[in-house]
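If you are new to this repository, start here. Below is one unmodified record pulled from the training split, so you can see the exact layout before writing a loader.
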Amino acid sequence: MILLGAIAGVHGVRGEVKVKSFTADPLAIATYGPLYDDAGRRFDLKLSQKAAKDAIVIARIEGIADRNAAEALKGKRLYAPREVLPAIEDEGEFYAHDLIGLGVEDRAGRKLGKVVDMADYGAGDIIAIGGGSEGDFELPFADRFVPVVDLAGGKIIVDLPDDFFTATPVGEDKEEGGD
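And here is the target side for that same chain:
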């Protein structure tokens, strides 16, 4: 299952919802057939408006007829089966979900773990890496930090600053010394 969006809130009093769409074209979220939540509950979306603002679309969900029922859905993540998504033709493109499980190496070939998650907290995609000898860490998913994605080879190559694993993280005090 591929995450396509999330119910961000309600719109009006007749059960319409605001859906944050993660699809390239926000309006396309309603074209993939029924969507499902984490528990497997089915959601049939029908767009109420023909426009999106900041990737938010207004939709009706079959069986949801009032504001209270819509409020109860806030925060639900909406997924579609991988097979309903269009095939990717371009070698340099992929679905973020395709990265989960890929090995992670630095430019010298040192193994740093595997991709365990992809997230977007509003400032861009973040790639979470876990299971390596250096511990778990996150990176911006940008060409500067992830210059190579090799799906066929089952890995990504990351380009980290030399002091990445030894620098003091932002917000943590350096070791307090005596005066």
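Two things worth knowing about this chain: The longest strand covers residues 2-11. Residues 26 and 53 are 9 Å apart (CA to CA).
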